[in-house]
Design goal:
Chain lengths: ~240, ~325, ~325, ~240
């Protein structure tokens, strides 16, 4: 139904935008192994996005590509965290750390969704997200405990993104009415934050004391980056409307 | 003396030389140069196609392209490993690339300007690479030959994907068809030049042949490639931009026109359209990542100390 | 004592205080804070609109927008100069901005998400700024008042341009009209909050009024602004998003609804949608430019040495 | 006529693309005075581009905006030098130094064009370009003679761009047949290079010994950047075809 589709869109858009952001690292990573690892994570997320958008599309007779390439900025539902710029490797790892912790808790619960498709997607995604979370945690430790510079940069990455953490846990519109189909974001808050706290402190870093940035309805009204991301992602598809590739 | 004899025996029997075996210095040097050049080509080769990941026109194509560029990083990794068995470290090889002392395939100094170029690179550039590489699976140096087996398997997959991109474009809208034809027009010549200069102009080949590293001459491989792509181009519905391309019944091969070797040598000397850009992209990434690599090293050292402390206790 | 008397005389006569004049410390501090905040607002205010320069939808609009953002840099320059006459250096003020100790107008922590936002910023934000600033042209501190005269002249030009952008959109395609209405919906409330909290909640205002820095209360200015924009919105064919907006015959003013002061104070505390991003943008630019400023300083010193050498010879 | 229009397009596209590149500096310059100066130069160039594209458009019944926003990548005629990324301030100044030296010589001669419109545009542009050239030369001296780091960065900027210098002096297609309407780029080579040499050496730097990059027909066939520039520049106009702004 439509509400489920709108829920799938929220999950799918987060995954798609983050995949898009991460893919820009390929050929630019600090070492070859990281080119491979970041591409892997981006590919996983893109895979999740494709399942979720395809599923959402069934409610409106649309394909994954219709939804990815022909929705406008205000129709996307991604959170601001995934829209933030890659920054340096520390900032990217900070974003990965926060988002994969949230996603891990989310999919752990979503495997029990009463919607069998969502449950199946979550099941497939879960072991991949476990790897993403581990990858981010390992790098957080390496950077936090590596050199003075790396600790500084990793902390700066966390500080820079922390005001977008709260948005992840807001029970926006279609979610509250979905019952056991969906996982209420607010229900993930505590365990996600405590997982983050554990890793951040283990890495000798500080959990930022920064409140959430105003505006958290995933409408894109409060983001300046989404437009740039979509402009680049959609340019070719829109130059050739109706074409197949 | 014993080593020398054993080495000659291995070569004569067309067997594999392994890292523990004695080998003549020039053999080792030739291999390090060739394998690291090949690895560098994989690394630099990530750029032209990588340029289109964020703009790929469908999510499926985006996923395929991302996986392909990732494969290239992977190929780089195991080729550097193969070269390391010859006693040169990856850092040393990367440093040669960084400082511009190492070569890589000139083809990657051409831009991937349109999406169709991604198809043309897959079909023609990977196609030429495979033609070159299949015989290298039997290269006398074991780690190299084995790495090539893995590389070739994935490359033929990539060539297929490139061909499919072009096929969709060629059978799509007029604008798509035009885009595909233009890409083939641009990449045909440079792809044929990937086999290196004409045999008459290629001094190092004979020794590599004698060592069972190289199995066929540049011109032989080029011919083989042309013979392969002509029917493939037909099937694509695209034209190869060479008016002299005709079937020669007598030779049992396609004849083809002269290539622009002035361009080739100019690009080889570093004057390719994007030669500087490719190297700067690589250098910027390496510079930007220096602090990360330092942190990883410091952290690993720390781990070792912790372990020593534990063992000492 | 003499200075104090003279200062009080100047204020009583509504004359200008000049940099050479004695002035009480709190007066100086209040002014430095206010003028530098104003300068910072110009600098940070370059970002939301600057964000659209590369994407402006016509070359004419691009040129106008570029000139406008350039004006903001110019305003920043002469406001910093005015503040410097009070004995605080530009570097010191920029450092306060850099470290987050200085404030700037909260409105710039909202995004300019669409092209229509550029129009809404011009019409509403610059409009509110002018309403605030016109009385400041008579501010008791001479350099500040004179800077404001220049600023106001350009700002009214900017407001006009913003209005024109919205007019074109409002009278354009349905999509353009919608874009314009949404921008007005988003900027109306924050623009009204630019005058600061309600008078009942604004402790510093009285002293500023007594010193002839401020001439009207926050609520007076807000009312003046609302009275100005209501007919302008009519002319635009756009709706102001306040159901309580009605003409009050008795007061001779428009009544309007309550504003979301929780949002205001939250944004003021640094939790605006883009508070961190704005500051980081500024910090990155400043960090990236450090080597250039060092070079310019070193070069200037060198020039002085060369001159000294010449003079000494 | 069409040949003159195509010539005007070459000059206009160079100015437009460089204006677009430079405008990205606004709010990001090393000091406030440079925000103002770079915006000024960008505005001048944009002004020249508007005159030139409007004039070119008369041959085809097109407006400046038709030409700026609705031509595709391969229809632009800009040189690769102006398409290069801003890089750091040193690289931007290097690009300004080279391009303004070329443009100064160009407009100095174009004021004598037998085409009165081109002559008038050149006349107006000339004193502005003189300022651009002076601005770039002054900064080249400051950076070249400033600190070790600034000299290094300025030299790196020159090295990075030098392979795109020769393209400026190629007599591409419409030019050779235009007689005294146009200025043959090849005729500007010597004096431009000697002006550059003078400033670079005065700044204690070295004229790079780097040959021209292959491909110099201004077709965009050899650029990967033009597509990105146009994607961003044209996105909004193309989302609303036929709209007025």
């Amino acid at each position: 139904d439509e509400a489920t589709a709108r829920y799938a869109l929220i999950l799918g858009d987060d995954a798609l935008i983050l995949a898009q952001r991460l893919s820009a690292w390929i050929s630019r990573a600090p070492e070859l192994e990281e080119d491979v690892a970041l591409a892997n994570i981006a590919l996983d997320l893109l895979g999740h996005a494709r399942f979720l958008l395809s599923y959402a599309g069934t409610a409106w007779g649309k394909t994954e590509d219709d939804l990815a390439y022909f929705r406008d900025e205000e129709e996307f539902r991604s959170c601001r965290l995934v829209e933030q710029e890659n920054g340096d490797f520390g900032q990217t790892i900070a974003r990965q750390l926060i988002f994969s912790a949230y996603q891990l808790q989310l999919y752990r619960r979503l495997v029990h969704s009463t919607d069998p498709t969502l449950a199946a997607i979550a099941d497939k995604a879960l072991k991949e997200v476990r790897y993403h979370q581990d990858h981010a945690a390992q790098w957080t430790l390496r950077l936090g405990l590596g050199t003075e510079e790396s600790a500084h940069r990793m902390q700066a990455g966390l500080d820079s993104l922390w005001s977008y953490v709260e948005e992840l846990f807001i029970d926006v519109d279609p979610l509250t009415g979905l019952g056991d189909v969906a996982v209420l974001p607010s229900s993930l808050r505590e365990e996600t934050l405590s997982l983050l706290q554990e890793i951040i402190e283990q890495a000798g870093l500080t959990v930022p004391d920064i409140s959430g940035a105003y505006g958290s309805d995933r409408s894109g009204r409060f983001s300046e980056q989404r437009g740039y991301i979509l402009t680049e992602m959609q340019v070719l598809a829109r130059q050739h409307p109706g074409a197949t590739w | 003396e014993v080593g020398q004899a054993r080495f000659e025996e291995l070569i004569a029997a067309d067997s594999r030389v392994e890292p523990r075996d004695w080998m003549p210095d020039p053999y080792r040097k030739t291999l390090v140069r060739q394998v690291s050049q090949h690895a560098h080509s994989e690394i630099i080769g990530m750029q032209p196609e990588g340029n289109w990941i964020t703009r790929a026109p469908s999510l499926k194509r985006k996923a395929i392209l991302m996986a392909k560029v990732q494969d290239e990083a992977g190929h780089g990794l195991y080729l550097y490993s193969a070269a390391e068995t010859l006693g040169t470290s990856r850092d040393e090889m990367l440093d040669q690339l960084y400082t511009g002392r190492a070569k890589y395939s000139s083809i990657f100094n051409y831009p991937a300007r349109t999406w169709a170029d991604v198809g043309a690179i897959g079909w023609l550039v990977d196609g030429a690479a495979i033609t070159n590489q299949v015989p290298l699976c039997r290269a006398s140096y074991g780690p190299y030959g084995r790495a090539m087996v893995r590389v070739c398997k994935e490359e033929s997959f990539h060539q297929r994907q490139g061909w499919e991109i072009l096929y969709s474009l060629s059978h799509g809208t007029d604008a798509q068809h035009r885009m595909a034809q233009e890409a083939v027009d641009r990449f045909y010549g440079p792809a044929l030049q990937m086999f290196g200069p004409p045999d008459s102009d290629s001094p190092n080949s004979n020794q590599s042949m004698a060592w069972n590293i190289k199995r066929f001459s540049n011109d032989e491989l080029r011919q083989r490639f042309v013979d392969m792509i002509v029917p493939q181009a037909d099937a694509l519905g695209l034209t190869l931009p060479d008016p002299h391309l005709t079937w020669n019944e007598e030779r049992g091969h396609y004849d083809f026109g002269d290539l622009d070797w002035d361009e080739f040598f100019s690009v080889l000397k570093g004057n390719g359209p994007l030669s500087r850009q490719r190297l700067e992209h690589y250098r910027n990434a390496r510079d930007d990542g220096a602090w990360v690599r330092e942190a990883a090293t410091a952290y690993a050292r720390r781990g070792q100390q912790d372990q020593s402390a534990l063992l000492g206790a």
